[in-house]
From TrEMBL, chain A:
SMART domains linked: B3_4, B5, FDX-ACB
Organism: Peribacillus deserti
Record's protein name: Phenylalanine--tRNA ligase beta subunit
A Pfam family of this chain: tRNA_bind
Record lineage: Bacteria, Bacillati, Bacillota, Bacilli, Bacillales
Keywords, sorted A to Z: Aminoacyl-tRNA synthetase, ATP-binding, Cytoplasm, Ligase, Magnesium, Metal-binding, Nucleotide-binding, Protein biosynthesis, RNA-binding, tRNA-binding
Automatic annotation (TrEMBL), chain B:
Name of the top EC class for this enzyme: ligase
Record-linked PROSITE patterns: AA_TRNA_LIGASE_II
Protein name: Phenylalanine--tRNA ligase alpha subunit
Assembly, per entry: Tetramer of two alpha and two beta subunits.
Cofactor note: Binds 2 magnesium ions per tetramer.
Catalytic activity: tRNA(Phe) + L-phenylalanine + ATP = L-phenylalanyl-tRNA(Phe) + AMP + diphosphate + H(+)
Source organism: Peribacillus deserti
Length: 804, 346
């Protein structure tokens, strides 16, 4: 809502308060002023000029040579390219030295050999938004009414030196969608009076009811309909002051009748509609629900197909307006209109919101109806508009109005105690202070002991309960004046749950290990949503996605991380290690919530370590990725319960991927992305993992089992085993550990050889075995005995031989 | 013989003095002090001496030996030291070359902000509550005083999956769920961080997915001044002790009265600049007293219990804190962006 400071002064005294001060006060007490704009700020040098002569430029067909009186001693010559410039016009002239928007400075110029001392301006050139410029002037210069004074400042005449406050209205403050509503607010803040417009009574001989009858079928949606008839109107432009106020409020001027309906809409907040009476085609107004599929062409020349829950104004049979949203083209007021049927009605929010949404049409009218208009301004607004039509369109207002009225417009009565107010706010206000606040708001307040009973005017439909009154008190008392306290509550144990704590630990570990945390979107394409999923479940698609790109909830995180890699690689960021924790969504029953699972995924590519000047480079490989996870499982006390098995997973390298199991249950995978996927996405060798974060966070950690530091030396034996190439090192490791018995404390793999010096199909794996007895020094014989058992077991189970 | 010994001593000391290597020194030792050396030889000829002379020459020979040995030892120490110095000099490296990099990643800036806020409220006794990102219309709207057809539903146009299921548009349903589970048993004191979704086209200031963190306190006798005090503590700890806060009336369907909190602009100190759009204030969060309808729907007696709630956007806070100018950076995950948030901050 744009509020003209100058216009507002007509309804409330603003003396002593600058627009900026006013904005600050309004913001602090209830409605956010998002900006204060003075369009002429920084501009100068534009005056009203009188075009005395106009002739074609001798050298250029499209240019005109004009002689313009600027109210100075001598008229000046100005070359003008506008097609609509003409002798006798009063126009806006940017004189030599003028500054126009965009810091455009006007200088003396020669155009095709002819001198030009300034520029005749269009409204757009003066900084007015094209969408509010009247159609007549949309592609040419603006022409002032003939009574405009030559030499006068054009900015002032066009209201461009007015300060416009832009109000950011919350949906509850429908009352402030009118100048009078804002005036009430400002009056309450400043403790001043509201001045209502004076409406003159018109009493012609004819009665409106002789011209029209009003019949409302849909009384629930339209409890009040007021029709007035204004005869013998002369269509023409509205007065300049009205046009400038409309433009400053963001509304395009049309003609005097339409402008008056818009002017009163802004003034009272009550939408009005003017029909060309002669085009209605009957003497009847019938308000009813549309029939399904019924059609109407609205004022914007669009044919609209109606639904059964839309409300229409008809002439008894044909729709002539989409109620509360937009009029019909068939009954539009035009230059030949002589009799106007003026509609002022109360439509309920729901029915208007539905129609407005279905047709994608938000008008000044519909946005007010949606939020609720004041039922007590419907009749007044009609009278005000009729009066203005008499004054500015030379109309004759017929006696009375034709109405259909079933509206209950009783003001709300809400009682509250002083104690309640003080208890909720933490204040120590007195009853007189409270009463004063309600009086400033012009709410009738009756005090009885500690109780105050407030009659809320219908313009403030947002106030219905005690808490609403408390808010009024709080905002006018001022939040700055509220005490500062902290809750005196019984202490409750706060903090993170064990799950949340552990999750933070997972993140810290991964970050310490060199991975950056990523955050990606949950919505992706249908295709990507299901890739790399750990679960067999259907994906969930939005009912109405905004784009295919963000249409479906993800079942896994990996595809998103691959996208990040792709993005970074395309920008020469070659070495990337990232991880993400987040939810994935598994479809269940229709109309049931999906199962949300928290997962952990990581993606690595490029170099893991590089020391540039020493020439060392370690690219990321499978074991780097696996090592990160092993470290994580050790950190979480799960190392002993996790196993890795070769796995074939769609989109992954079949020979370089492992399924991860926790206590035998699959929880995820780690491996290289399938080379064909890498190629398709322009990725280099990429290693990823994804696993169920919930599973690892909920798993019971192995307890810390303290062992005293051994006092006796250990004995280490190294063995190199030759086995078939397919034999998994992890299996041999397991066999050794099992066969080694109590004395075998540690096994590590320290070498792997497959190559020229090995027989085809064989490989050598070297293990280091550390034996120790915490109670005494081991003898060579004891170790040999245990070691032989290990060798025997490995030989029997894998066919391994000792490498010579 | 006496002269011969003195001669030998002078000669040996001279050679020791001139020696330049440990090997040379060792040769001197062997040649003068060895079993086949000249001193031993002199001593062998002592049989020819008188009984009076013998001890004199004997002790002189020992003195000579001792003197030579001492000089050799001293010289050896010198030479060894020089050798070490030479070796160390040869081992010199360029200490200005860079060290071996230690790998380290870091938190996403949004996580950084969220954890900072979490920790701040945890220190004031809050628990962290979480809930589903896909919600029932009931918890997302109806339980929060937003019945179907309520105009404020337009404020947050949503991604529906079915008529009853949608991507949550705020983290408030976590509050609704927590309250419902709580059923008037003792106070509630939680903050709820998480992802939320709205039908917005992604641009520099809008994102269809973003983070939110909300707080809720319910107990007997919770006052609006408690909300003001809590927000004051939060603003000062989060943005600096010198920051002022301002509450402005606002509207949220689930709170009444409702306010928005601004903090004084750090950039201009409140005089007005482009960051604060000339107002001197920067909007940080929305808050208010929990609407009685919301309390009642969750099973709390609104005559007995009251509470406050507040909510803010970590993206906005991170943008203000670090001067990030495009919200999409948080979701693009350019590694050059992510790497900038690894430092510890005071
Ligand atoms: Zn500033």
């Amino acid at each position: 809502m744009f509020v003209s400071y100058r216009w507002l002064q007509e309804y409330v005294d603003l003396s002593g308060i600058s627009p900026e001060e006013l904005a600050e006060k309004i913001t602090k007490s209830g409605i956010e002023v998002e900006g204060v704009e003075k369009k002429s700020e920084g501009l100068k040098g534009v005056v009203v000029g009188h075009v005395l002569e106009k002739e074609k430029h001798p050298e250029a067909d499209k240019l005109n040579k004009c002689l313009v009186d600027l109210g100075q001693e001598n008229p000046v010559q100005i070359i003008c390219g506008a097609a609509n410039v003409d002798k006798g016009q009063k126009v806006a002239v940017a004189t030599v030295g003028a500054v126009l928007p965009g810091n455009f400075k006007i200088k003396k110029a020669k155009l095709r050999g002819e001198e030009s001392n300034g520029m005749i301006c269009s409204l757009q050139e003066l900084g007015i938004e094209p969408k509010v410029v009247a159609k007549d002037y949309s592609s040419g210069i603006f022409v002032f009414p003939s009574d405009a004074e030559v030499g006068q400042d054009a900015f002032s005449l066009l209201g461009l030196d007015d300060s416009i406050l832009e109000l950011g209205l919350t949906p509850n403050r429908a009352d402030a969608m009118s100048m009078l509503g804002v005036a009430y607010e400002v009056a309450a803040i400043l403790g001043r009076e509201v001045k209502w417009p004076q409406i003159e009574e018109h009493a012609s001989a004819e009665d409106a009811s002789e011209y029209i009858s009003v019949n409302v079928e849909a009384k629930e949606d339209n409890p009040l309909y007021v029709a007035k008839v204004i005869k013998d109107v002369k269509i023409g432009p509205s007065p300049l002051w009205m046009q400038t106020l409309l433009m400053n409020s963001g509304i395009r001027p049309h003609n005097n009748i339409v402008d008056i309906t818009n002017y009163v809409l802004l003034e009272y907040g009550q939408p009005l509609h003017a029909f060309d009476y002669d085009k209605i085609g009957s003497k009847e107004i019938l308000v009813r629900k549309a029939s399904e599929g019924e059609k109407i062409v609205t004022l914007d020349e669009t044919e609209r197909t109606l639904k059964a829950d839309h409300l229409v104004i008809t002439n008894g049979s044909e729709p002539i307006a989409l109620a509360g949203v937009m009029g019909g083209a068939n009954s539009e007021v035009g230059s030949d209109t002589t009799t106007v049927l003026l509609e002022s009605a109360y439509f309920t929010g729901g029915v208007i919101r539905k129609a407005s949404k279905d047709h994608g049409l938000r008008s000044e009218a519909s946005s007010r109806y949606e939020k609720g208009v004041d039922p007590n301004r419907v009749r007044q607004s009609a009278e005000r508009a009729a009066d203005l039509m008499a004054k500015y369109a030379a109309g004759t207002v017929l006696k009375g109005s034709v109405t259909s009225d079933s509206l209950q417009a009783e003001p709300a009565v809400v009682s509250i105690t002083l104690d309640k107010i003080n208890k909720v706010l933490g204040t120590e206000l007195q009853i007189t202070q409270i009463k004063d606040i309600f009086e400033r708001l012009q709410f009738a307040a009756v005090v009885e002991g500690q109780e105050i009973t407030v009659t809320v005017p219908t313009r403030r439909g947002d106030i219905t309960i005690e808490e609403d009154l408390i808010e009024e008190v709080a905002r006018l008392y001022g939040y700055d004046n509220l005490p500062v306290t902290l809750p005196v509550a019984e202490t409750v144990p706060g903090g993170l749950t064990p799950y949340q704590l552990k999750r933070r630990r997972v993140r810290s570990f991964l970050e310490g290990a060199g991975l950056y945390q990523a955050v990606t979107y949950s919505l992706t394409t249908d295709e990507k949503a299901g890739q790399y999923s750990l679960e067999k479940a259907d994906t969930i698609r939005l009912a109405m996605p905004m784009s295919e790109e963000r249409s479906t909830l993800r079942l896994s995180i990996t595809p998103q991380l691959l996208e990040i890699l792709k993005y970074n690689l395309a920008r020469q960021n070659d070495s990337i290690a990232i991880y993400e924790t987040g939810s994935v969504f598994l479809k269940t029953e229709e109309d049931e919530l999906p199962i949300e699972k928290e997962q952990l995924a990581g993606a690595l590519t490029g170099l893991w370590h590089s020391q540039l000047w020493q020439g060392e480079k370690k690219p990321v490989d499978f074991y780097v990725a696996k090592g990160v996870l092993e470290g994580l499982f050790t950190e979480l006390g799960l190392a002993g319960t996790v196993t890795y098995l070769p796995a074939d997973i769609a989109g992954m390298h079949p020979g370089r991927t492992a399924e991860i199991k926790l206590n035998g249950e699959p929880i995820g995978f780690v491996g290289q992305v399938h080379p064909s996927v890498q190629k398709e996405m322009d990725l280099k060798d990429t290693f990823v993992f994804e696993l169920s974060l919930q599973s690892i966070l909920q798993a019971q950690a192995e307890p810390i089992a303290y062992e005293s530091i051994p006092r006796f030396p250990s004995i280490t034996r190294d063995i190199a085993l030759v086995v078939n190439s397919e034999t998994a090192a992890g299996d041999i490791y397991g066999i050794i550990l099992e066969a080694g018995g109590k004395l075998l404390k540690e096994v590590s793999i320290f070498d792997l050889y497959e190559g020229d010096r090995m027989e085809q199909g064989k490989k050598s794996v070297a293990f280091s075995l550390k034996y120790l007895d915490p109670e005494r020094t081991l003898t060579d014989e004891e170790v040999t005995k245990a070691h032989n058992k290990v060798l025997k077991a490995v030989e029997e189970k894998t066919g391994a031989t000792l490498r010579g | 013989m006496k002269e011969r010994l003195q001669e030998l001593q002078a000669e040996a000391l001279q050679k020791v003095e001139e020696a330049v290597s440990l090997k040379e020194l060792n040769d001197i030792r062997v040649s003068y002090l060895g079993k086949k050396g000249p001193i031993t030889e002199v001593l062998r000829g002592m049989g020819k001496l008188s009984a009076e002379e013998r001890p004199v020459i004997g002790s002189l020979a020992n003195e000579v030996r001792e003197a030579i040995a001492q000089h050799i030892e001293a010289k050896q120490a010198n030479l060894e030291e020089a050798a070490i110095a030479e070796k160390l000099a040869a081992e010199k490296i360029d200490v200005t070359l860079p060290g071996n990099p230690v790998r380290s990643g870091s938190k996403h800036p949004l996580t950084k902000v969220i954890e900072e806020i979490e920790d701040l409220f945890i220190s004031m006794g809050y628990a962290v509550a979480e809930g589903p990102e896909v919600e029932k219309d009931y918890y997302n709207f109806e339980a929060l005083n937003l019945p179907k057809g309520h105009p404020a539903r337009d404020m947050q146009d949503s991604f529906y999956i079915t008529d009853e299921i949608l991507l949550r548009t705020h983290t408030s349903p976590v509050q609704a769920r927590t309250m419902e589970k709580h059923q008037s048993k003792g106070p509630v004191k939680i903050i709820c961080p998480g992802k939320v979704y709205r039908r917005d086209n992604d641009d520099a200031t809008h994102s269809h997915q973003f983070m939110q963190i909300e707080g809720l306190v319910i107990d007997e006798n919770i006052r609006m001044s408690d909300l003001k005090g809590t927000l004051d503590v939060f603003a000062k700890k989060m943005f600096g002790e010198d920051r002022e806060i301002r509450l402005r009336p606002s509207f949220f369907p689930f709170t009444e009265p409702s306010v928005e909190m601004d903090i004084s602009c750090k950039v201009c100190g409140g005089r007005g600049c482009s960051v604060c759009k000339g107002t001197g204030w920067i909007e940080i969060l929305g808050a208010g007293m929990v609407h009685p309808n919301v309390l009642e729907m969750a099973g709390f007696d609104s005559k007995k219990y009251s509470g406050f709630a507040f909510g803010m956007g970590p993206e906005r806070i991170a943008m203000l804190k670090y001067g990030v100018d495009d919200i999409r950076h948080f979701y693009t995950n350019d590694i050059r962006f992510l790497k900038q948030f690894s430092k510890h901050e005071e």
